[in-house]
Specification:
CATH topology of the largest domain in chain A: Peptide Methionine Sulfoxide Reductase, Chain A
Distance between the termini of chain B: 68 Å
Number of helices of chain B: 1
Strand content of chain A: 15-25%
CATH superfamily of the largest domain in chain A: Peptide methionine sulphoxide reductase MsrA
Helix content of chain A: 40-55%
Oligomer: heterodimer
Largest interface: A-B, 47 and 21 residues
Largest sheet of chain B: none
CATH class of the largest domain in chain A: Alpha Beta
Radius of gyration of chain A: 18 Å
Structural class of chain B: alpha+beta
Shape of chain A: globular
Radius of gyration of chain B: 21 Å
Amino acid sequence: MDGVIRTRVGYCGGTSVSPTYRRIGDHSETVEVDYDPQVLTYDDLLASFFAGHDPRVRSYSTQYRSAVFYRTGEEAAAAGRALERVQLSTGLLHTSVEPLSRFWLAEDYHQKFRLRSHRDVFAQIRPLMPDERAFTDSTAASRLNGWLDGCGSAEQVERELPLTGLSEAMQDEVRAFAGRRERVGRLVR
Amino acid sequence: MQQPHVTALSKPTAPPLDLEQPESFRTATFAMG
């Protein structure tokens, strides 16, 4: 998605301190999105949020619930409006809109999970970062993680893939996987 | 005379895509099921 600078996964919404995947407590699995407001609006992100999962069925656990964590009154109002608008067309949604308390960053091995599973691509890009936090916050790593998971337009892949620092051969491998996912998607549409 | 032993360390080089990102941004947080 153009305008998204980077993403991180973590835990949020609960009360326990220093949650982990094994000890998530009353937190939920969450994603943080850093975005450029000159390119992308909060309303755009809300539309993508509601399109990206199905909150019509109530989650069986706090870990996997649907929620918007707002930082400002404007974000709360926008989330409320978006929720109402989507509910008018889909029926009741089990999405909670609540203030952000604290986002706890998930363990390193959860960050850019899809990219990590492509070991040859990961092995080439990871040494470009001085440490794990830099890798987590890398736009190139975020883009690769999404493209390898079938996200992003073909136009974005062609425009930005040469800027990731990968070799030509590795770029071709990423293209092959992104294209494969896209073709599978078309079959089930 | 003995020459000092020098080891060249390779420094990480950030991808161009990372370097062209704006310093100013906003953050949004969601739980998506």
